[in-house]
Amino acid sequence: MYSQADIESAVAAGVLSRDAAEGLHAHALGLRQAPVADEEHFRLLSGFNDIFVTIAALLMLGACAGIGAAVAPGVAGLLVAGAAWGMAEYFTRQRRMALPSIVLMLAFVGGVIAVPINILAESQMDPSNRTGALIGAGIAILGAAAAWIHWRRFMVPITVAAGAAAAAATVVALIIAAVAPATGDGAERVLLPLVFAAGIAVFALAMRWDISDRARETRRSDVAFWLHLLAAPMIAHPLFNWLGVTDGANVTVLSAAGVLAIYALLGLVALAVDRRALLVSALAYVLISMTWLFRQFGMVELNFAITGLVIGSALLMLSAFWSTIRAAIVTQLPVGVQARLPEPRLAIA
Fold first, then answer.
1. How many CA atoms lie within 13 A of 218 on its CB side?
2. Alpha-carbon distance 291 to 73, whole Å?
3. DSSP letter string, 10-26
4. CB 3.0 to 4.6 Å from 163: which of 147, 198, 242, 292, for a disulfide?
5. CA-CA distances (angstroms) from residue 199 to 147, 179, 180, 342?
6. Which residues of the chain have pLDDT under 70?
7. What Å distances lie between residue 319 and 31, 123, 279, 324, 331, CA to CA?
């Protein structure tokens, strides 16, 4: 079975012409009788061998971590990063296995940033809030550099999201270091707004990748998927925290109504850009609010069950009619905006 990435690679190598690739894509689209873009595909598994290799790789990485921890502080991270890079040379660069590539990339970046973290932890240093923020920024820069190097070599789609997360952490840590007093109160006041702003920036970056591949046929679409997955909780958590629903005990009727209103707004954005990550990230807050509301109306024993029934039914209906609803929304947007979004298509009856 051949993936879209394999076909793109064949076109780049001159084995398959662009016209032939587009003809194959059109034929496959007709057979499936459903729009490719609205399915929001991303490559995770090419077969059970992906799971088999991933389990073996995790065992190897765990062994490296255990051996390194017994040698000296920081050695565990070095061994994990080195082993992850070495395995990626074969399983990512040559075999192009999706799930192992994701795991090995995360292991490499995680191993790199674990080196200074482990060394600092062993030194038992107790820095001030400002110093700690600066150290955190330095570690985040190291993680961003590791992600960039890995991307240049292997071009695993999730790597861009890892680099974006590290870059966002760097900016947030530097700003906190600049404005936070020694008590740390300033850090708490500015953290959520900074995370929210960073989430908007990551979302904009994801849209830039999406716009470059409206048909969602290349690696750029996979990159955008992971960026959307990163941006979603960074946007959703601050919004619902400000409404006071991160602690279920503080939910009020007004805040619950606010959660539902914001979730509806996020749903409109998700439909417009044809990405479901925002809906998934905000789902926990909606469940908390709805559960509280049903409890207030006397449904104490069945509040969670009724919440699951209502929300689950609504999401299933949205999934079933996603293309139809999305087409109705996108066609109401300005022409210039429509030209940058995936083209809405209805499934063939």
1. 15
2. 46
3. HHHTTSS-HHHHHHHHH
4. 147
5. 19, 20, 21, 22
6. 1-13, 15, 21, 23-42, 125-129, 180-188, 246-251, 296-303, 345-349
7. 21, 52, 11, 10, 19
Residue showing tokens 């509301």: 293
pLDDT of residue 188: 62
Going 52 to 58 to 63 to 64, the CA torsion angle's sign is positive
Residue where the block lists tokens 């992600």:
147
d(CA 238, CA 226): 20
Q: Whole-angstrom distance between the N-terminal and C-terminal Cα of the chain? A: 26
pLDDT per residue as tens digits for the range 143-169:
999 999 999 999 999 999 999 999 999
Asked whether 143 and 113 are in contact (CB, 8 A), the reply is: yes
How far apart are alpha carbons 209 and 219 in whole angstroms?
10
Measure the CA–CA gap between 83 and 64, rounded to whole angstroms.
8
Count of residues in the chain: 349
This prediction has a pTM of 0.82
Is-contact 234 195, C-beta < 8 A? yes
